[in-house]
From TrEMBL:
<dbReference type="Pfam" id="PF04536">
    <property type="entry name" value="TPM_phosphatase"/>
</dbReference>
<feature type="domain" description="TPM">
    <location>
        <begin position="55"/>
        <end position="179"/>
    </location>
</feature>
<protein>
    <submittedName>
        <fullName>TPM domain-containing protein</fullName>
    </submittedName>
</protein>
<dbReference type="InterPro" id="IPR007621">
    <property type="entry name" value="TPM_dom"/>
</dbReference>
Length: 182
């Protein structure tokens, strides 16, 4: 009888363990995103993920073709001007309480913009936290002032976000920023 009880327990454990493995594998994203795009980030000692490319979609908001289109716009603009742009969607700011400070520090940590020109711009937003910040380098902010960035956020990006059109908001905002940044 003890042997039968042990077999039953072993069978029960083996069955449940195999179900756990199946459940975990079913939770993986089922999209066609390359692995380096869908891999979640781990906060380092600075609470910042490592920059991967021009568009860093850590909230998995954009489709692959949308990422490719935004990347093309940014790369074409950088080739013409040397100005650098990064777009970041993020679901958490780690230990940071201030989203704006996080966005500025992330942009500095990543080194967006050329050091001698300080010509970087980073758009950091979070669908989950319902926040957005455009962070500019010292050279960039002479042209793209806080007032201009705020106007673009309020009049172009936010209206699209409110209707769930995150790609359109970022794309239109990016185009507007580039048009002003000459």
């Amino acid at each position: 009888m003890k042997t039968l009880a042990k077999l039953f327990i072993l069978f029960f454990l083996a069955f449940n363990l195999s179900n756990c493995k199946t459940a975990k594998s079913e939770q993986k994203p089922s999209s066609n995103f390359p692995k380096d795009i869908i891999r979640p980030y781990a906060f380092g000692k600075n609470d910042f993920p490592e920059k991967r490319k021009e568009v860093n979609d850590f909230e998995f908001i954009f489709k692959v073709d949308e990422i490719e289109n935004l990347t093309k716009i940014i790369r074409d603009y950088e080739r013409k001007t040397t100005n650098q742009i990064a777009i970041v969607s993020i679901s958490s700011t780690g230990k940071y309480k201030d989203f704006d400070k996080y966005a500025i520090d992330l942009s500095n940590y990543w080194g967006v913009g050329q050091k001698n020109k300080d010509n970087g711009l980073t758009i950091v937003f979070s669908k989950k936290l319902r926040r957005i910040r455009i962070s500019t380098g010292n050279g960039t902010e002479k042209i793209l002032t806080d007032k201009i960035c705020k106007t673009i956020i309020d009049q172009i990006i936010i209206p699209e976000f409110k209707t769930g059109n995150y790609y359109e908001g970022i794309q239109k905002g990016l185009v507007a920023l580039i048009a002003k940044w000459k």
